[in-house]
């Protein structure tokens, strides 16, 4: 069972109505109804007794409501702890690449700053003709990441991970050991 489906179930159990839960969750009633039927099929048991006055939980439904609520509470606590610890992470990233392409990092860095506000970075520009500089800087530990043309990367470099950065044959070089 996915956490999303558990969250849906708990809303239906709380509202005692699929349409009421659908409105609270901002999903369509048919979508939520299908999710609840699939959950019952997955468990092989009935969770709700459907009547004219709405839904009533079966004994198994009551158990899932009780235990599922605890699980979702614990999940929330874990996520808060992870977010808190992520904000405490500090560091500095050293990046090297041709200045014409380091702008590709603006959006990823904005996302990084939101998640890890104590991480800073510096970008060292390499000569437009020195496309081997990122490769050697990353390989020797003088930079954490490098941007270079795919055509320069020699195949089978076990020390480096190569991630496709753009359709212009650009790659991001990352040491295998980088956290």
Summarize the model shown.
This protein is an alpha/beta fold and 179 residues long.
Descriptive overview:
With 179 residues, this protein is of the alpha/beta class. The chain has 7 helices and 7 strands. It has helices at 3-15, 18-25, 29-43, 59-88, 99-102, 106-115, 132-139, and strands spanning 48-51, 54-57, 90-97, 118-125, 145-149, 160-166, 170-175. The strands form 2 sheets. A 5-stranded mixed sheet has the order 4-3-5-7-6. Strands 1-2 form a two-stranded antiparallel ribbon. A hairpin with a 2-residue loop joins strand 1 and strand 2 (54-57). Helix 1 (3-15) packs across helix 4 (59-88). The longest helix is centred in the middle third of the chain and has 30 residues, at 59-88. 19% of the residues are buried. The model has no long low-confidence stretch (mean pLDDT 81).
The count of DSSP E runs of length 2 or more, i.e. the number of strands, is 7
Q: How far is it from the N-terminal to the C-terminal residue, by CA?
A: 31 Å
* CA gyration radius, whole angstroms: 25 Å
The main sheet orders its strands as 4-3-5-7-6
The total count of helices amounts to: 7
Query: Per the principal axes of the C-alpha atoms, what is the gross shape?
Result: elongated
Tell me, rounded to a whole number, the average pLDDT. 81
Note poorly predicted spans. Answer: none
Q: By helix and strand content, what is the structural category?
A: alpha/beta
What string gives the helices and strands in order?
HHHEEHEHHEHEEE
């Amino acid at each position: 069972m996915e956490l999303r489906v558990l969250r849906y179930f708990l809303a239906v159990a709380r509202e005692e109505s699929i349409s009421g839960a659908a409105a609270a969750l901002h999903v369509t009633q048919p979508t939520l109804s299908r999710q609840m039927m699939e959950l019952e099929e997955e468990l092989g048991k009935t969770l709700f007794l459907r009547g004219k006055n709405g839904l009533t939980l079966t004994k198994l439904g009551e158990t899932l409501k009780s235990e599922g609520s605890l699980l979702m509470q614990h999940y929330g606590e874990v996520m808060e702890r992870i977010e808190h610890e992520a904000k405490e992470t500090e560091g500095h990233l050293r990046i090297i690449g041709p200045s014409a392409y380091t702008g590709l990092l603006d959006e990823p860095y904005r996302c990084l700053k939101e998640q890890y506000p104590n991480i800073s970075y510096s970008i060292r520009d390499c000569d437009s003709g020195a496309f081997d500089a990122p490769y050697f800087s990353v390989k020797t530990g003088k930079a954490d990441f490098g941007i270079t043309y795919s055509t320069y990367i020699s195949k089978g470099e076990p020390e480096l991970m190569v991630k496709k950065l753009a359709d212009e044959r650009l790659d991001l070089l990352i040491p295998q050991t980088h956290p």
